[in-house]
Amino acid sequence: MKAKTGLFTFYSLLFVSTIFFSSPQTILAQQQTTIPFDTLNWEKVSCNNWNMDADSIAVFGTDYRAPGIIESKDFFDFSQSEVYIKWKVNAVGKFMAATLYAGGYALGNLVTTDHTCCDSKLIQENQWYYTQVKFHADTSYTAIRSTGDFYDNGGTFFDSLRQKVTPKRWELGIKNGKIKAMLHDNYGGDKCSFTLGSVLLKNAVKISEPSIIATKSYNFEDGKIPPEMFHDTNSTWNIADTGFQSHKSIFLEQTPGHSSWIEMNVTGAAKVSFDARFVSGYSWNPVMSASFAIDTLNMITLDRSNKGCWRHFEWMIPDPFAHHNLRWYSNYPGKYAQDNSKLWIDNITVYYTVATGVHTVKDNTIQSVRIFPMPVTKSTTIEYHLNKPAFVQVEVFDITGRKIQALESENKPAGTYRLKWKPLPGMVSGPYFCRISTEKGFVMKKVVIEK
Predict the structure, then answer these.
(1) Which residues contact 249 (CB under 8 A, 6 or more apart)?
(2) CATH fold label, 361-449
């Protein structure tokens, strides 16, 4: 019987190594990035404490059964990457759960201390574990956990997970995500900790800040909900003085048995920021939750604590040229009233990039814009007509609004012009935008590269 078990283990490990290392995606030159442990690269998104030095960063629980969460400040495109994270936990001899995320997806099955729960895997306190993840071209990822070292460096296999990612999450999260560490359901309260010993990214592309041309802010100082914001009818959203920087804020008094939300629709937005404070009358209640979502997908989970501190959040919006829904919501499926349980939101700011002009700004000087053939495989022709002399600029931007190429910049008489454009070698397949502008305005056209 032991021989059969050993043989099964051998073939299991062989299968795991095969799905991890035999990815169908193109083999890229390895570009490695280590995320340093400092406040320039990491931030708290909960009311907990944290400690860091050159070799590690530790996040502590907030309250009894209330989480502690840290995230990388930068956003990354993980779609063709590998992620290596060294980590350990300290549960002070009690039960707690721990989860690592990349792009909104858990990098492995739930792990817990003291005892298993909800199909979790039992881990030991103060022992280093090693998680390595590979994202595949078929919009899936493989995560392998090991002890002693990373599995591909001789570590002892602990467990593995192969997970398919939904197309929407792949675009909104995996291609536009952060690294997150979270401890939760911690019976040791703020004595529990989750420590990262190293975070290494291979071929993950850091997403640059977009070019912002306009912002719109909502601080609720006039005591009114802006007409572009909508809310559900399950609960009442109110505006009152919170004492937060002596400003008014909008808040929801949580109603048992309901999910409540406030939302707005945006076009041409590349980024959103806001301040939030989620106060739970009973911090131990694990079913209460509050989140921020883009197009109904959770991007940020807000801390639930009776401390109720204010936290600042920022999130990049992928494909700003498209229409997106931004939603803040609170969910409490329980049936008992929670005294003083509120979700507060303030200082919402939406940042608009060059995408603002894609549907609304048209220069009457520029007419009959065509780009062909489409999609672009090797080269394409950009054709436009000027009905009067003008100084013309032709530029190419990526989906975040970052300028990639300047193709023309000169005075031209009236007439029809054709410009041959060949994408730069480093430009990957996907959507881009061509902007043709004069002193009067501009016209934006979507360009799809297919290699």
Answers:
(1) 220, 239, 240, 242, 275, 277, 344, 345, 346
(2) Immunoglobulin-like (2.60.40)
> Could you report the per-residue pLDDT of 111-156, keeping only the tens digit for each?
999 999 888 999 999 999 999 999 999 999 999 999 999 999 999 9
pTM: 0.72
The answer to whether 76 and 200 have CB atoms below 8 angstroms apart is no
pLDDT, average across residues 13-27: 39
CB atoms within 10 A of CB 164: 10
Angle at 118 between CA 286 and CA 98, to 5 degrees: 65
Ranges for all domains in the chain classified under CATH 2.60.120.200: 2-206
Best-predicted range by mean pLDDT (193-202, 294-303, 422-431): 193-202
Cα 418 to Cα 108: distance, rounded to the nearest angstrom: 52
**pLDDT per residue over 169-189, tens digit each?**
888 889 889 999 999 889 999
Contact (CB, 8 A) for 99 and 93: no
Higher local confidence (pLDDT), 353 or 218? 218
Measured between alpha carbons, how far apart are the two ends of the chain, in Å? 52
Residue with tokens 């505006």: 239
Is the C-alpha dihedral spanning 318, 106, 263, 69 positive or negative? negative
Architecture of domain 212-355: Sandwich (2.60)
Q: What fold characterizes domain 2-206?
A: Jelly Rolls (2.60.120)
Alpha-helix residue ranges (DSSP H) falling in 149-293 = 167-169
Q: What is the dihedral angle through the alpha carbons of 117, 123, 124, 125, rounded to the nearest 10 degrees?
A: -80
pLDDT bin (cut points 50, 70, 90) of residue 254 is low
Instruction: Round to whole Å and give the CA distance between 451 and 449.
Output: 6
Residue 198 to residues 88, 100, 162, 328: CA-CA distances in angstroms? 11, 13, 23, 33
